[in-house]
Task: structure prediction
Amino acid sequence: MMLAPGSRIGILGGGQLGRMLAMAAARLGFDVSIYNDAPDGPASRVASESHVGAFDDLDALRDFAASVDLVKVEFENVPAATAAFLASLGPLIRPGPLALATAQDRLLEKRFFNESGVPTVAFAPIAARADLEAAFSALGAGILKTRRNGYDGRGQIRIREASDVGAAFDALGGAPAIYEQLAPFEREASLIAARTADGAFAAFDLCENIHEDGILRRTVCPAMAPADVASRAVEAVRAIAERLDYVGVLCVEFFLMPGGVLLANEMAPRVHNSGHWTEAGAQTCQFEQHIRAVAGWPLGATTRLARVEMENLLGADVGSWRSLAEQSNVRLHLYGKRTMREGRKMGHFTRIWPR
Amino acid sequence: MMLAPGSRIGILGGGQLGRMLAMAAARLGFDVSIYNDAPDGPASRVASESHVGAFDDLDALRDFAASVDLVKVEFENVPAATAAFLASLGPLIRPGPLALATAQDRLLEKRFFNESGVPTVAFAPIAARADLEAAFSALGAGILKTRRNGYDGRGQIRIREASDVGAAFDALGGAPAIYEQLAPFEREASLIAARTADGAFAAFDLCENIHEDGILRRTVCPAMAPADVASRAVEAVRAIAERLDYVGVLCVEFFLMPGGVLLANEMAPRVHNSGHWTEAGAQTCQFEQHIRAVAGWPLGATTRLARVEMENLLGADVGSWRSLAEQSNVRLHLYGKRTMREGRKMGHFTRIWPR
Result:
């Protein structure tokens, strides 16, 4: 059933993703209510209503859910108890707990990819030091990552030789982990796609991502990848979305390996930084696409209108807004964050090139 | 001086234009405060703050202006006293009272066009019945229009023969009027352009407009017009904007006459319905362009990314949102209005065609 314009969509999370989702929802005639753990966040300032509460305050969350027609979670690190609680409130809570639980745990996630027929690097679960020693013997150089709460490169330790193992394991402080074989990739790419409750699926073009210090710096679309690689990426994301019975926008990040091999690295059960270019250069942006999917609407066209290049404004980068505003092929997008911190995502800009 | 992101822009008027301006301002990192004469309007629901007051409540307007860094007027029919009052508060109030006063009075407006070197239909001021009789003798068939408060075809009476004159004059009820010679135009067109305080000027492509019952129904861009007509339209709007020392987005509507003659009909000192396509099909949309100009930023690129066709959803038309949502080349935009009235602008949609 299509949620009618005029309905109220609740968004859990008040950052830039919530902000862009709120504006897309407004364009479709929805009212938006934001639930965030701090007042005056970026999303609240473009929404019709704003609730402040902790993400584990179930009473406040119940009131919030009761005040809206649909709840939408902005980020995947919402506490599992919160996700389960919200799911218990009704069928309209998206994304579902399976997608959240899978995306929150690197081990479950990689297993899920493989079970969906999508290859990944070789990996091993790490609970004890002996596990890591065995994994290093079997897989060679790699990266030790906490299973949970890692994003933008946090909670990751590279292991190059056997003598690194002890310190790396100790650095985890006992957190459950995964050891992943080092992937000598040629490029990193991501695919943003959406799926509706009745199984319709649409993907945006494959993008190429450039990370610095584990944080996305730049996205170029289309990716420099052969057509068959791009279509295998689409089929991989379709398989993952179907197995999750996913509803909404989903991003899967890939390693493009020599010889055209494509390995899924991780997924985000939501709109994603590497899809921000869609707002400037695609017929439907990822934010509207997500709202359409969760509201039971048909998906919009994913046609790309130009060649695009998106760059994040991290921390002090935001100071370049003046010179960016002067460049005629630049579309600037600032998030309205009150305080700047090193590495904090303050905005982004998209350069638009004729096709 | 460029107004810095994080500054607060006040918008007078809470309808769909304010709503789209508010979202464009947010994308540039500004906070938006809406002043409207009713609560819960379309613009308030995407703004960080909302003031409710009458448009002639000067105390409330003073408080509003004091709470923001820049005031922006959404519509041209704001009371003249309000405009003058706001202008007295400081230099940052846009558009200025000259542009508002000119656009509010059809007689001043047509004289202003002619003084700017831009041709119009022949016209005559009407204060008394004898004026109308003389004007009809001189100009033949035409349209009697009130000088003020006419929009969307209201306050207009067509005169075909001498026997119509008496009833037409009486219907005015003594309001100051203008009599305009009938223009047997081939097409109606409009040009949206922007000018900055330091005189930079940029125009979007010329659009063709289809009106029904005096209300804009459909806009197609680019207009089916020879290149020299399109460039004369640009030069006409540039001349008008310069003479007004205009800052912001301005729309001038034209009649395209047989033989390539271009006559200016009226102007709107603001973003305009016939520019809504820019949100879906231009590199910078008219709303962002306006915010850029009034905030002292350089203008964005006006490059059109596709052929576009915008259609208004008037009154019950909005009921077609379901079928529009299913059409893959349609970009739907609903204004979130709580109540539907016949002929009321409830939303619009843009069809996007490859170039």
